[in-house]
């Protein structure tokens, strides 16, 4: 329970697990990330459903729960993504917001709004998408190496393949349960994992390692990829 409290406190704005012991327990039990995604997804689904006629307010509710750390990571990654090859590392370290960040976050925000407008009737889609977002982060934490010292490296210090194996088991079990009501979840989750693997391959090939911003960006990329897939299924005849 201490690891779960630490994860909720670290990956959301929920005032739990902000003590050192809880954070240390999280670092040693990263497998719990998919469970955190399930809980956060369930909490997000309520205001998104209630605010279905006001998609922008749904975005604000999402930010109020998850905070802006992951979007901040997406912004920094966006600057690096659009920077010339010889300036990508410099752009990643730059604290200023560039055009790449503005474009990336704008696309993410508007796509998120569109997705919420399509899936608000189906809380299970939001729950699954948050689970996949946290699983993507788990994949990055357990199968890559840190680019430099920092929060990302600190979180990866005790990361083990065992964490990924346990997290994968939780993912598989939850996917099987959701399959009973939304069979397309199998395709959606496989597609999202493929997106995560492509992103992982790109950052490792381009930068040689990952930092906290890239891990945070993975959360956003996996979340929106999963939501887009569910939205696409809803629009099929």
Can you lay out the helices and strands and say which pair or pack?
Blueprint: H1 2-11, H2 20-27, H3 33-50, H4 55-66, H5 69-82, H6 88-93, H7 99-119, H8 123-143, H9 151-156, H10 161-179, H11 185-207, H12 212-235
Overview of the structural elements:
- By secondary structure, the protein is an all-alpha fold.
- It has one domain (31-235).
- It contains twelve helices and no strands.
- α1 packs across α3, α3 (33-50) packs antiparallel against α4 (55-66) and α8 packs antiparallel against α10.
- It is globular, with a radius of gyration of 17 Å.
Rg over CA atoms: 17 Å
Helix content: over 70%
Q: Total number of β-strand segments?
A: 0
**Total number of domains:** 1
| Class computed from helices, strands and strand pairing | mainly alpha
> What do the pLDDT scores average to?
91
N-to-C order of helices and strands? HHHHHHHHHHHH
Report how far the terminal alpha carbons are from each other.
44 Å
Keywords:
77% helix, mainly alpha, 237 residues, 0% strand
Short account of what is shown:
The protein has 237 residues and is mainly α. Helix content is 77%, strand content 0%.
């Amino acid at each position: 329970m201490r690891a779960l409290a630490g994860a909720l406190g670290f990956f959301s704005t929920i005032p739990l697990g902000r003590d050192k012991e809880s954070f240390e327990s999280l670092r040693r039990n990263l497998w719990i990330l998919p469970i955190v995604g399930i809980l956060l997804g369930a909490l997000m689904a309520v205001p998104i459903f209630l605010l279905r006629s006001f998609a922008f307010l749904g975005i604000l509710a999402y930010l109020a729960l998850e905070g802006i750390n992951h979007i901040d990571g997406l912004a920094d990654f966006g600057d690096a993504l659009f920077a010339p090859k010889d300036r990508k590392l410099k752009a990643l370290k730059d604290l200023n917001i560039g055009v790449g960040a503005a474009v990336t976050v704008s696309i993410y925000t508007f796509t998120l709004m569109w997705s919420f407008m399509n899936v608000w009737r189906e809380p299970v889609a939001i729950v699954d998408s948050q689970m996949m977002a946290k699983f993507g982060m788990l994949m990055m934490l357990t199968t890559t190496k840190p680019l430099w010292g920092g929060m990302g490296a600190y979180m990866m210090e005790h990361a083990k393949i065992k964490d990924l194996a346990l997290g994968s088991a939780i993912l598989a079990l939850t996917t099987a349960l959701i399959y009973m009501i939304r069979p397309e979840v199998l395709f959606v989750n496989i597609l999202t994992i493929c997106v995560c693997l492509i992103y992982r391959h790109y950052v490792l090939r381009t930068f040689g390692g990952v930092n906290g911003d890239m891990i945070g960006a993975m959360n956003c990329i996996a979340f929106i990829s999963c939501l887009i897939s569910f939205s696409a299924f809803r629009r099929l005849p």
